[in-house]
Amino acid sequence: MINAMQNYYPEALGLGLVLNASWTFNTVWNVIKSWLDPVLASKIHFVKSSKELAEYINRVFFLKRLGGKQMDFKLRPPTKEDEALVKFFREDK
After folding, report:
1. How confident is the model at residue 2 (pLDDT cuts 50, 70, 90)?
2. Sign of CA dihedral 74, 48, 29, 37
3. What CATH code is assigned to 2-90?
4. Which of 36, 50, 63, 76 is 20 to 30 A removed from 17 (C-alpha atoms)?
């Protein structure tokens, strides 16, 4: 997948921000980025706080839990109606 993204969509990513990454993810990232095109890898930035994030994104667009004005999202399990819709649209007609 990484190879396809680099080869077919080389400039699709303007900027990638990773907030509060664990040390495990940072370790894995250091391996993965060596496989990436340096231009693509340079577009990924790790930020550790809302203050650092605000250097890239206006605080108005932050989620409320980060001190912004945007509604926090809560994942919910799919309902029976959701599952029925998925099944309906996946069936070959």
Report:
1. low
2. positive
3. 3.40.525.10
4. 76
Helix (H, G, I), strand (E, B) or coil at 21: coil
Q: Which two tokens stand for residue 80?
A: 């029976």
The dihedral through the CA atoms of 80, 85, 86, 92 has a sign that is positive
Does the structure show a pLDDT above 90 at 19? yes
- Per-residue pLDDT tens for 42-79? 999 999 998 999 999 999 999 898 888 898 888 899 99
Domain layout of the chain by residue ranges: 2-90
Q: Is 44 helix (H, G, I), strand (E, B) or coil?
A: strand
For tokens 């980025």, the residue is: 33
Radius of gyration of the chain (CA): 18
